[in-house]
What we know:
By secondary structure, the chain is α/β, with parallel strands linked by helices. It has helices at residues 16-27, 43-52, 65-71, 77-82, 102-113, 130-140, 154-163, 223-231, 240-255, 262-270, and strands at 2-8, 31-37, 55-60, 74-75, 87-90, 96-99, 122-126, 146-150, 170-173, 185-188, 211-214, 235-237. The strands form two sheets. The protein has a six-stranded mixed beta sheet, sandwiched between helices. A six-stranded parallel beta sheet has the order 9-8-7-10-11-12. β11 (211-214), α8 (223-231) and β12 (235-237) form a beta-alpha-beta unit.
Amino acid sequence: MDKYAVIGNPVSHSKSPQIHASFAEQTGAALEYGAILAEKDKFRETAERFFAADGKGANVTVPFKEEAFNLANSLSTEAGKAGAVNTLSLDAEGKLCGHNTDGIGLVTDIKTNHGGSLTNKSILVLGAGGAARGILQPFLDENPALICIANRTVSKAESLAELYRDSGDISACGFDDLEGRQYDWIINATSASLQGDILPVPIELVGEKTWCYDLMYANEPTAFCRWSQQAGAGKIMDGLGMLVEQAAESFLLWRGIRPQTREVIDRLRSS
Ligand code: ATR
């Protein structure tokens, strides 16, 4: 049996083992996929021990994506741009390769599962942490009209916009500066939903054609999804589809086959 795992802290809530078990069943792959809790200061040892014990690949989740970026011997373009790694694989010489499948997972979910488009669209990204950084390049690759990054700490939004300045129309601001236009897309890349916090974003930014997407997911609608509903958004999505799509991209990297995702998403949604 080939061994894979997700490494995180916390990790017991992770749906990745369930998702990869579905992919293995679907593709007839003989593999086991576990969840490994690493102590906050022991990511490197934990990952190295896993691969020394014949691990074939790992997903990396909060709070270790930047450490995984530092651990990898080589990086994919996406991981290099994102400054974060969510998937580790081994090359032919047994060296660790770092990838980031979060952004492509999100774009696939938007386009394939929701029938959405980012091309020529105005996009407001809320948040400027790791989650926002992971999605900006894949978004810019879709040629949006503009991207505005708004964050509680404005300087972080400004630094992030600066990184991508040459790749498109990308600006930065604080929540207080947001007014005067409706966006085609509002993406919540903050972790505020995790604490149930509502962001101080004017409701007027949302029109009936605005699609709102929370990168977080939960069994109940997130605080951002509830806010979007009250604001009258045209469509509201959470991050469950992104989670399954990024997992499918990891599986493709490891096994050379991309599993079907629709049924897996539906099953998780109703479980
Ligand atoms: P990571 O990089 O791991 O994603 P992070 O750096 O803590 O985590 O970033 C989380 C994002 O959520 C940040 O944009 C953070 O805003 P700040 O940069 O101002 O800290 C945002 N965030 C978290 N909780 C928030 C809250 N209650 N209200 C507004 N923004 C919040």
